[in-house]
Structures are given as C-alpha cells and as structure tokens.
Specification:
Blueprint: E1 3-7, E2 11-12, H1 14-25, E3 33-37, E4 43-44, H2 46-61, E5 65-69, H3 73-86, H4 99-133, H5 140-150, H6 155-177, H7 186-224, H8 227-233, H9 238-275, H10 281-290, H11 294-320, H12 326-359
Helix pairs in contact: 1-2, 2-3, 4-9, 5-9, 6-7, 6-9, 7-9, 7-10, 7-11, 7-12, 9-10, 9-11, 11-12
C-alpha cells in the first residue's frame, strides 16, 4: 500500500485551491491513498471547498482514497459540511438487463396490472348490481348526471358520425353494383352492415374517445390531487363512490346511442339512395325494412353491453394508476383511449366468430 501526503496552504481559496488540484493531478502512479494535512491551514472559503471537492472526485476516479487530517476548529464546521460531497459517489450506471430479465419484468408487470384490473372490475360490478339489492346504497343523483353527460350530450356527434358513415357506405356500394343494375340492394347492404357491426362499433369508438377519455382524465386528476386518497381516508369505497355510477350509466345509454346510430346510418344511406340514385322513398324504405332481421339486430345490440363495461373499466383503471403530474394525466388518458379501441375490436372479433359459427 502506497501512501502520499500533501500539506494544504495557509488559506484555501480560489487560487490556492486550483493549485492544490494541479498538485493532486501530478501524483505518481501506484499511490492508492492520499492524506491532506491541514495543520497549516487557518482559513478556507467556499471556492476553496469547491476545489477540494474537485480534487476528491479526481482521486475517486483513480481509486485513490483521501483522508483529511489535522484541521483546526476554525475550518472544522466547513469540512464537516463538505464531507458528504467528498465521499465516493454511488455508481449510477444502469446495469445491463438481459433479454430474459426484460421479458420477465414485462410479464410480471402485465400480470400485476391484470390482477388490479380484475379486482377493480369485480368490485365495480358488486357495487353496481349486488350492493343496491342488499340495501347498501347507490349514488342515483350522480347516475342521472352521468346519463346526461355520457348519453344526452353525445347524441349529436354519434348521429352525425353514423349518418356520414351510412352515406359513405351507400356511395361506395352503389358504385360497385352499378354495373349489375341492382343499386336497390344498397339499402340491404346499409341495413345489414349497420345492424350487425357498423352502428355498434362506430358508436362505441366515438364514446370511447369522448367518454372513456373523460373518465380517465377525471380520475387521474383526482389521483394526482390526492382526492382519491382523501376518499379512502374517509372510509369511502372508490368503486362505489366513483366507478359504479359511471358503469351503470354507460350500460344504460350505450344501447340507446347505438340504436340512434343505427337509425342515423340507415338515414345516411337513404339520403344517397333517394336524392342521388333517385329511388322513391317508399321503395327504399320497404327494401330497407325487408333487410332488417332480428338476428342481425341482436348481434349488434348484444355486444354493446360488453363495450360499455370495457370503456368504463379501462378508463377507471388507467385513471387510478396515474403517476406524476399533469403529464401523467395526459399519458394515462391517451393510454385509456388506445386500450379502449383495441378492446372494442377484440370484443367485436369474438362476437363475429361466435355468430359466424352459430349462423353457419
């Protein structure tokens, strides 16, 4: 073990501190311990302390330990203040993570989130259906407010989007069948398409972008502002107080919105058929009604209940998992909408497969 000693100047300031660092940098190789002797040092200012920290960091990079000795009472308080900075800094370099650790971490995180989502869903369903039957209360006033917010205020955008989609479907379908002279069948295409798929999925996407994002943003803001913790501190169940009214409200209003979307889509197709293709309104109406079958309507309406549960629960789940400030709120809101749309498509695929084999 090789040790070296350096005597510090009588006054350790900006100039003498810089000189001290230069002297430390000239240490011979093989030295693994340096003693700074302060027996002659009578005064030291903040700039001198900064240079002392610079010397310490240089020595740590060379794996040389540093020891301060014989300092007087006049500078002892400043030395003690500098001691944390003089110690070896922690190695902050991230450890390389191999592929298996990365896969394992993602899997564990996904399973944990899935368990949280399951617990929240079970809790919400209990407080929405079973708890009111047991006389444990339900926030009917909030339920009515949510119906107005999720349903009544969404009617215009839902009807407009479905009307335009019906118009587009009729326009493109008419162009395809024009060569065969069966343009009247466009009424059948529009009716069957909206009854089975388009009304439900288009309305659900609009609602997810509108209501799902609003739910996630509302709960995320409450979480950031610690209102969720305050509710729990008062002994209130979050699922009962916040989630259950939203869940029941959307379960009630989404089928209604899908019905309005179906009517609007068919009207969009009829607009093209009557004013562009120049069919008589009665002829187009009769053709449309002849294509309306209960099985098709049931296929479209049944999935709306699952859509409603998915939209509300995904919005609440992401809102309650937010971390950070306003940026976290924005990220979780975006994540909720993306997850909503993905889940809607997944549910739709499941129903499409089920009805495909049932009708087959």
């Amino acid at each position: 073990m090789s040790q070296h000693s350096i005597e510090c100047p009588a006054v350790l300031d900006e100039n003498t501190g810089k000189t001290l660092v230069q002297e430390v940098r000239k240490l011979p190789r093989g030295v693994d311990s340096l003693v700074l002797d302060f027996k002659n040092t009578e005064d030291m200012d903040a700039l001198g302390g900064a240079w002392l920290i610079e010397a310490s960091h240089y020595l740590r990079k060379r794996s040389v330990s540093i020891h301060l000795e014989n300092y007087h009472d006049d500078i002892e308080s400043l030395i003690q203040l500098l001691e944390p900075a003089l110690e070896a800094p922690a190695d902050t370099r991230p450890r390389d993570i191999n592929m298996f650790e990365d896969i394992g971490g993602v899997t564990i995180s996904a399973l944990k989130e899935l368990r949280e989502f399951y617990d929240l869903t079970v809790d919400a369903i209990y407080w929405t259906i079973l708890a009111p039957l047991e006389g444990r209360g339900f926030r009917w006033g909030i339920f009515v407010d949510e119906i107005n917010e999720m349903g009544v205020r969404a009617i215009r955008i839902v009807c407009l989007m479905n009307f335009l989609l019906g118009l587009i479907i009729a326009m493109l379908s008419a162009a395809q069948v024009e060569a065969f002279g069966v343009q009247l069948w466009v009424a059948d295409f529009v009716m069957i398409g909206f009854a089975r798929e388009l009304a439900a999925i288009m309305t659900a996407v609009v609602v997810s972008a509108r209501t799902g994002a609003a739910i996630a943003a509302e709960l995320a803001t409450m979480k950031v502002q610690e209102e969720i913790d305050a509710l729990r501190g008062m002994g209130l169940n979050v699922a009962q107080f916040l989630v259950a009214p939203k869940l029941l409200a959307l379960i009630v209003v989404l089928p209604c919105l899908v019905t309005l979307g179906l009517i609007s889509g068919v009207m969009g197709g009829a607009f093209w058929g009557v004013f562009v293709l120049e069919f008589q309104p009665s002829v187009w109406f009769n053709q449309t009604m002849s294509a309306a079958h209960f099985d098709d309507l049931m296929q479209g309406m049944l999935k709306t209940f699952f859509f409603a549960v998915a939209i509300v629960m995904i919005g609440c789940h992401n809102g309650l998992r937010v971390t950070g400030g306003s940026r976290g709120v924005g990220l979780m809101t975006t994540r909720a909408v993306v997850m909503d749309i993905f889940m809607l498509i997944s549910i739709d695929i499941v129903f499409a497969v089920i009805f495909y084999y049932m009708l087959d």
